[in-house]
Specification:
The protein has a 5-stranded mixed sheet, with no helix packed on it. It has a 3-stranded antiparallel sheet with strand order 2-8-7. By secondary structure, it is mainly β. The chain is 4% helix and 54% strand. The protein is elongated. The model has no long low-confidence stretch (mean pLDDT 96).
């Protein structure tokens, strides 16, 4: 599965990307009909980051990071992780990094 979070994000831009549905390690479908997807972005600056809840898009999710959020991003290397949850179940949909300019 590929999540197309941009490699470079410009502070103040709106960022939009889709997270497709996927299967868990034992083959069960993880989709927006049952799971909530949360995207986390973090950097090494204390108390700085973003937490965005995706909205249903087909059977996956669309994540929109508003310009009001990215305008507060400090320049540098950031990491991200997308996690799907339902009840006590939690699965990482993807993770990676991006650079803020």
């Amino acid at each position: 599965m590929t999540i197309l979070v941009p490699d470079t994000i410009y502070a103040g831009d709106t960022v939009i990307f889709d997270v497709p549905a996927f299967t868990d390690p034992v083959g069960n479908q993880v989709d927006s009909g049952t799971y909530t997807l949360t995207w986390f972005a973090r950097t090494n600056v204390v108390s700085e980051g973003a937490t965005i809840v995706g909205v249903a898009e087909s059977d996956g999710w669309r994540v929109t990071v508003p310009s009001s959020t990215t305008s507060g991003f400090d320049a540098g290397l950031w990491t991200w992780q997308a996690i799907a949850t339902t009840g006590a179940l939690q699965h990482t949909a993807g993770r990676g990094q991006f650079t803020v300019k």
